[in-house]
Amino acid sequence: MSLQTPVREEYEIALEPFTQAALARDISLAQRIWQQGWVRKTVILIALAVLWEIAARIQNNDLLLPSFLQTAHAFVDGIVTGELLGKVWISLTVLVKGYLIGIVLAFGLTTLAVSTQLGRDLLSTLTAMFNPLPAIALLPLSLLWFGLGDNSLIFVLVHSVLWALALNTYSGFLAVSETQRMAGRNYGLRGLRFVWHILIPAALPSILAGLKIGWAFAWRTLIAAELVFGASSGKGGLGWYIFQNRNELYTDKVFAGLAAVIIIGLLVENLLFNTFERLTIKKWGMQR
Amino acid sequence: MNAVLQGHTASDVLPAQAGHQATPEVLLQVSNVSLEYRTPERVVRATHQVSFEVDRSDRFVLLGPSGCGKSTLLKAVAGFIKPSEGEIRLGGDIVTEPGPDRIVVFQEFDQLPAWKTVLENVIFPLLASRTLKRREAEERARHYLEKVGLSAFANAYPHTLSGGMKARVAIARALAMQPRILLMDEPFAALDALTRRKMQEELLELWQEVRFTLLFVTHSIEEALVVGNRILLLSPHPGRVRAEINSHEYDLQSIGGVAFQASAQRIHRLLFDEAQGPVEQDLGFHDIRIAY
User: Fold this and answer.
1) Each residue's pLDDT tens digit, B151-198
2) Quick one: pLDDT band at residue B62, thresholds 50, 70, 90?
3) Is there a domain that residue A8 lies in?
4) A234 domain residue, yes or no
5) Distance, in angstroms, between A10 CA and closest chain B CA?
6) Do the strands B230-235 and B59-63 form a parallel or antiparallel pair, or are they unpaired?
7) Which long-range contacts (CB under 8 A, 24 or more apart) does A107-111 make?
8) Cβ pair A188:B129 closer than 8 A
9) B157: nearest CB among A188, A202, A283
10) Contact call for B80 and A182, based on CB within 8 A
11) Is residue A46 included in any domain, yes or no?
C-alpha cells in the first residue's frame, strides 16, 4: 500500500468557445519581407559590391582591380553597344546545344542501365572512366576530330554534362522505393512507360541536382575552351571576349565579361531551376 | 492436433478438384505454393507448400507472426514473385506477372506518387492500365473518392494528407480499378490505433456496399477477426498452414465479447503453442498482438 503514489482528486472542466486570443496572428511586415529569398540574396550581393568598391578604392590601380562602378560602366557599355550581348548569344547557343545533347544521351544511358544488367555495367564503367577526366583535356583531341568550330566545342560540352547527369539520374532511379516500383508494375507499366511515369518523377530531385551540376560544368567548360582556343568559326564567345580584352589590358571589360558569366549563372539558377523546382518537387513535398 | 487441422485446410480438398475447371464460387486457388527468396549467401524458403482457396466476395485474412511469409505470399498472388513450387490460379488462369486485375494496397505511405494530386492518383492506374478513357476515368475516380469521403481533397497533394487519408486514397484507387481481387498488405499497420479502428470500420462498410473479394495480410489477431470472414493461420520459418478459422460472425462491436475473446485465444494458442516446440524456441512473438 505504501508503494502506491497518493491519489489526487479527479476534475472536469467545462470548456467554452475559445475567445481569449486570436487563433492565428499575422507576421510583421519586416519579417515577411525578410522571408523572401530574393530580398536576402540581393542584400548579400549589395554587400559584396560595396566591399569590392572599397577594396578597389584602397588598391587604387585600375589595371589590376577596376572598381565596381567602373566594371558596371563597362558592362552597361557592352550591353548598349551590343558587343557583350552578341558574345553572350554566341556562347549560349553553343552551350544549349551541347547541354541538350548531353541530357538526351544521359537519359538513354540510364534507361539502359535500369533495364539491363549489361547497361548497368556499361554505365558504371563509363562514368568511372570519364567522369574524373576534365572535359577541357579532351579539347585538343576534339579539335583534331571536328576541326575549329562549334562541333568541337559541343563535343567537350556533351562530355562535361553527360557523366555528371547520368550518375545523378541513375542514383536517383536506384533510390525509388520498392513500393512505388511495385505500385507501377501493378498497373501494368513496364519498359519506357515505367521509366517515364514512375522512375523519372520519383527521381526528380536527383535528376534536377544532376541538371544543375551539368549546367555548371558545361558553362565552365565552354568559357575555358573559348579562352584556350578562342574564336569558333570566326566568331568568339564570352571566353574569347575576356581573353581578348585582357590582351589589350581593358581590365574593366575583363571584369564585365566575368560579371556576365556570373550573372547568367545566377539567372539560370534563380529563375529557371528555382521556378522549375517550385512547380515540381517543392509543390509535391519531395523537397523542402 | 496438427494433422486434424490439416484436414480442414484447402490442401486436402484441392486434389479432388485439380482435374476440373475452378468452380464459379472459387476465385483464387493457391495450391502447394512454396516461395523462396535469395540473399547473397543463400536461398531462404519463405513458405512451404501453402494451399488455400478464396471464394468470391470473401474477406480472406492471412495471419501469422513476422517471418511466416504472409506478405511474400500476397506478393506472389500479385505476381511480383514467382513460386518455386506449386501454382496460383485466379479464376482458373495461372498468375505469372503483376496485372491490374489484382490491385495491391501497401502499408507504406509512399505508395501514392507524390507528384499527383489525390484525384490524379486515383485516375492514374485507370489510364496506365488503359482500362478507361480520361473522362470516364475521372468520373469513376470521383465516385470512389466520394465513397471514402475525400471529395473535398481531390486536388490536394498526398504530402498534405494525414496517414489515414492516404490509406483512404490508396483504397479508393484500388477500388476504382474494380479488380477481381483486392490485395491488402497490412494496410493499416502504420496508422495510429484510433485511425486504424476507423479504417477497419470503413473498409467493412465499403465491403457491404461493393462486395469486393479481399485478401488481407495482418499480424494482429484482433484485426484478422474483425476484418475477415475466414482466417488462414501460418506458422513461421517457413510459412506453413496451421489452421483455417471462420470469423464471419465478428465485427468491431464484438471486440471484448466472450466468443470473440475465445476465438482470439484459440488463435493465439494455435500460433503460440507451436513456438514452445524445440525447433522454433528462439522465435520472437512480440509482434503478435491480441489487442491494440
Assistant:
1) 889 899 999 988 888 988 998 999 898 888 999 999 888 888 888 888
2) very high
3) no
4) yes
5) 25
6) parallel
7) A107/A169, A109/A162, A109/A166, A110/A166, A110/A169, A110/A170, A110/A173, A111/A192, A111/A195
8) yes
9) A283
10) yes
11) no
- Check CB contact of A199 with chain B, cutoff 8 Å: no
Measured between CA atoms, the residue of chain B closest to residue A181 is B111
Count how many domains chain A has.
1
Portion of chain A with pLDDT greater than 70, in percent = 97
Q: Which pLDDT value is given to residue A231?
A: 53
Bond before B83 cis per omega within 30 degrees: no
Cut 0.80: pTM above it: no
CB B187 within 8 A of CB B170: yes
Domain CATH number, residue A218: 1.10.3720.10
- Residue A278: pLDDT over 80: yes
How far is it, in rounded angstroms, from Cα B268 to Cα B290? 7
C-alpha cell at A65: 582591380
Set of chain B residues whose Cβ sits within 8 Å of the Cβ of A185: 80, 98
Contact map slice: B 130-149 vs A, CB within 8 A? 130
Q: Is residue A209 part of a domain?
A: yes
pLDDT in tens, A167-186: 999 999 999 999 999 999 99
CB contacts < 8 Å between A and B, how many?
A: 67
For chain A, say whether B113 makes contact (Cβ under 8 Å): yes
Supply the range of the domain harboring residue A126.
Answer: 79-282
To test the contact with chain B by mutation, choose from A187, A193, A280, A286 the residue with the greatest count of B C-beta atoms within 10 A, namely A187
pLDDT of residue A102: 95
